[in-house]
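Input chain follows. Return structure tokens only.
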Amino acid sequence: MNLEQLNTIIDGRIDEKAKSFTAPPEDQIKKLIAEQSDEFVAGQLKEQFEEAKAKLTAMLPVENEETKAAKEKAKGFPDGKSFLGAVMRAKSGRGYDPRLTYLDAKGEVRSPVATEQKTAGHMEVGDDAQGGFLVPEIFKASLLQMALEESIVRPHGATVLPMTTDSLKIPYVDDTTHASTVFGGVLGQWTAEAAAKSATKPKFGQLELVPHKYAGITYASDELRSDSATALEPLITYMFGSAWGYFQDDAYLVGTGVGQPLGIQNCNCMINNLRHTSGDVMLEDLAEMWSRLLPSSKKRAYWIINPTVLPRLIQLGSGNAAAASGKNLVWIDNAAKSHPVKILGRPVIESEKMQALGTAGDIGLYDFRYYLIGNRQDITIDVSSHVAFTTDEICWRFVFRVAGQCWPQSAMTLRRGGTSVSPFVQLSAETS
């Protein structure tokens, strides 16, 4: 493995041909570690390479045999209807389907065969303190399709990592300026023959992903309890699927990091570009945001806007920053046609999760591959007849645990010009 490959791993570009990282890059990490070059590690950077390699190896997931067996059994459900019916029967004491797997209170996958108990003539598994039943992949796919609006961060390139513990440490290159060095401290020099060289080494940092728990509930009439999974499936799919995708995405974009993932808009590497006119979006604003984007991100970044920004884009004109009559529109050329879906060649996505027009973060330019998502606990579903007993309703609960934060820990100052760039740029509420 050479230095270029090492930095490729650390900055998230393990496979340059990949458009997104919706699956854990385990194979790529293993392959690159296996292809380590003896000539490279024998050189000056051997110590730093070995340290980074150890951190990368620790990122690979480790599952025990019980966890693997439990997940294999969960694949036996052909659809969501059969899964929900099995959950209802198990929690009402009318038989336990061996394909069901559940998470304990610590979020660990457990084999139900070893823990089921026979009481009062029926089988019981789990209790309300546990994490619920693991949703099979075939049903989880249906849940993901029922978003209230298009999910943004995960499907548009976020780096998703598996988590088998409640903490995952990730290495990064502490690269804040290119004024004299690159990669956080690597200095290249033009030297005369036999002249002394300055010894330098890259500076690595380490961030920590910590998962957060999200739970949602909904109620259904008691009549649905009698194994009516046929009627129940579309209800649960719509309610839980919509909420699951929506609230994850909201946290990845604007989360505070306190009891929830740290959202992109609150990361230290975010560049808040001053706008020219308060409460408006000008062509000059977009041009300056584009110039502050990390150059390598220009082929992968997305413009994310609040719907309230759209009228300003439709009326976007050239000329001075202040609005003027008779300006030449630059985003549309015919109001009878659909508005464009790109700015400077990159897609535009509308989302109500972004801030309202005139507020910092009403429009952002983000390269999502630099956002890390840690999957600690897949979505689980459980049911109880006790919570709403007096109203003849059953309570359904879903739970998931995820972590999230930006990979870069600061913006980077260019070698010349004194301008800072980042994979995450947004429009500030303040004016220049």
